[in-house]
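Re-run with default settings, no changes from the original entry. Doing this only to confirm the output is reproducible before filing.
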Amino acid sequence: MKRVILSAVAVMLFAGCSDSYFTTNENTERPLVNIPRVLRQSNWLSRGSGSCVHASMMSLFRWQGRNNTARLWGQRYGSGEDAQGLRAKMDANGIRYAYVTNGDVNFLEWACSTRRGCGITVRGGVHMVALVHLDSEWACLLDNNSVSKFIWVPRETLIAEWKASYGWAVTPVYTPAAPLPAK
């Protein structure tokens, strides 16, 4: 029964809502982490499995101005990854990062409010996407399986899916984008 519920949530999560309403709202950029299409990394197969964790990190590296890091990362790493393996790779490469594995929503709010974004687990923990916006009502995702558009979902739907998917989130910690203009 739990699988059926998680599958239904995953379908809702990735069906998304129309993103036309959310692209602009007067002085507010939406999503807050508005990664240009040219910086978005698509998932690829490596050693028989997807590289969603690495693709998400590469998009976030590029957003934070670390293009060389993203290029080298893509050359060195691929295939599936778990939290422990990613931490070891980041440590070995001198990458500054922050992460949670306990479903702490404060981390997601911090990562988005500082315009860093973060990789989060979804689909029962078998997929990672980039969380690029989180406010009191909405969450916005960049899925590396379809980088052409952002996916908007209700905040509580995303949080429930993320927590049911082990609550793992990670972000590089370099210079975020400039602050948004005051309203």
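Residues 1-12, 15-26 have pLDDT under 50 and may be disordered. DSSP finds six helices and ten strands in the chain.
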